[in-house]
Amino acid sequence: MFNFCNLYSGSSGNCSLIISDHTKILIDCGVSNKKLVEGLASIGLSIDDISAILVTHEHSDHIKGIPVTCKNSSIPVFANKKTMDALSEKVPDSCKQFFVTNEKFEIGELKIKSFAIPHDAADPVGFTIEKGKKKISVATDIGHMENSIIDNISGSNFILFESNYEPEMLKASRYPYMLKRRILGPYGHLSNEESGDTLSELATLGVKNVQLGHLSQQNNFPELAYKTVLEQYMKNNIDTSKLTLSVADRSKPNDIIKL
Question: 183: which of 21, 110, 218, 245 lies 20 to 30 Å off by Cα?
Fold first, then answer.
């Protein structure tokens, strides 16, 4: 068994779950402990089933549930050194575990590799998780695409991939000018169109199953993200009949994706 379940995904909180026979890993924990417990219960799991939490970076929408979760259950929290330093006292020393970006490590039966992403955080990463010949990738909070990201996630059997905003909605929003500039900048987030172009390239490299994630609540909506990415696929001459495209829910767990 090697499955993925998006528990929550969006600018208000992110938490994904990798499920194998003997190992269950959270990627980020950006929702309250109460909400996490409810999400796990809805798919028949409890917090006691979780083997570890992997942290992509220290922004609140990715880590705000960690302090209470660690206090209640002492789950190991894995992060690189700069990210762990940025988390400071939010993670008890007894729960701290470290990885080195771009170096593989194992948790249970899963082989994990982190890779650097351009985002305005201490040392942000995405992850690839492998079991046997199957590979899952999580890549969000990407200010601009780099070849190294493509190299890491190409050939994945499934990817959770960022499609954060629609530019005209962002420009017309009530966000402060500096926040708009940050999101649009090279260390902010990917737009729907940028996401679609990248996923078109990845489709030529074997990526056929994608879930769009980390949608902005104010500057995007699921139908628009889906439509725009699909249009980019077609614009780039990708045969969409061979693809599976979905959108991660921000407020409740999606269906489990079985690989």
Answer: 245
